[in-house]
Write a structure and sequence with these properties.
Length: 495
Amino acid sequence: MAQKNNDELFKNVISHAKEYGFVFQSSEIYDGLSAVYDYGQLGAELKNNIKTYWWKSMVQMHENIVGIDSAIFMHPKIWKASGHVDGFNDPMIDNKDSKKRYRADQLLEDKIAKYEKDGKTEKAAKLQADMDDALKAEDLPRLKALIEEHEIACPVSGTKNWTDVRQFNLMFSTQFGAMAEGSDQVYLRPETAQGIFVNFLNVQKTGRMKIPFGIAQIGKAFRNEVIARQFIMRMREFEQMEMQFFVRPGEDKKWFEYWKEARLKWHKALGTPTEKYRYHDHVKLAHYANAATDIEFEFPFGFKEVEGIHSRTDFDLSQHQEFSGKKMQYFDAELDENGKPYGNYVPYVIETSIGLDRMFLLTMMNALEEEDLSTPEKQDSRTLLRLHPALAPIKAAIFPLTKKDGLPEKAREVMDALKFDFNCIYEEKDAIGKRYRRQDAVGTPFCITVDHQTLEDNTVTIRHRDTMEQQRIEIKDLHWTIESKVSWRSLLSQS
């Protein structure tokens, strides 16, 4: 029954996202483009608010972290140096009947999640251990054997007619240049981190940054994901919010623990239930890492990564130093415990990397609820998007009670006064109750109703989304009332 409820929740979020203008299938009038989505009018606002929360938390609240915006196109040698050309692969398996391709490890993870839901915890633990061993050893035949051993069927065809597991490179390539015969092959960046690393010296010198310091960036990345499923969880074009924190060699473990704790606190400040989050330590580390932990969120389809914290050592800067021939070193004039300058060294890096689209989905999942308002006399309910007020796409909706007697004009005055500071919407169609319900469904924290009494004493009714409580307040107090709930201060002070 729980599985059914989880499936229903996921389907409800997807349909709600489309119905209210949050997320649309890309190129929908042409039957869509697989694993690519567009953000609608409210989705764009919510997405921007999540970005603002992250940026303010990272850059504004830290004196030693600055932000950049690097280009999507970069020199192809960068991806050779980073290891993406030779090593950016996923273990893929095809079903011969459906012709669909899947990530072998994700098929196994789904089976593990099913075992756990069915109470078969020992079986789940055994499969998890076997999969981790196979991934660590890069034993592709073993991955296929596990898929067969646990009788995993293709979700589309329902058959178990599998090919061998093979590695598949995920980078998109394109031609760079006006003429095809004289153009160079370049890649659409599969991550935003390398744009930070190649600008390490530019930022450090122009900003006179001292170790430890960080560089943050929000930007698009592209991966040729072959699995189009789970809505915006896995997309070919997606957005990342990454911060690379440069530290002294030997201090990486200390900072790794610091950022693990700090990033989980950032998530929890939004009011998400603590039990919905967990840490997952990597068994198989990436080629650049000496430690890695994922912050996972419990989606309806199981715990999945939302953010990664990685101790990348000095791999990236050392690789770019070797491939470019330019020194990527920092001169540290501060004295160590023996009274000697630290001198020149290639800094170590702690990375925090969060998927913006996954964070968007998490936020929608956590906020959407159907609230039963039934009484003995009447059946009633409402669809509510209980977003943190700071993230809400619309902060206040202004309603004239009727479309006559000067109420629309007065409501427009209120709207004009508030819109400089808050994203507001004006609406006069339908009964007031229906208007309230529409705003509940998109997460608007406040509804302000202008009625005939307003014309007499300059007071309005303000309705609170979460409690449906209505207050009579003076128009001059509206700004403070809204600001006290939706300001970034209320959120940043807890993160």
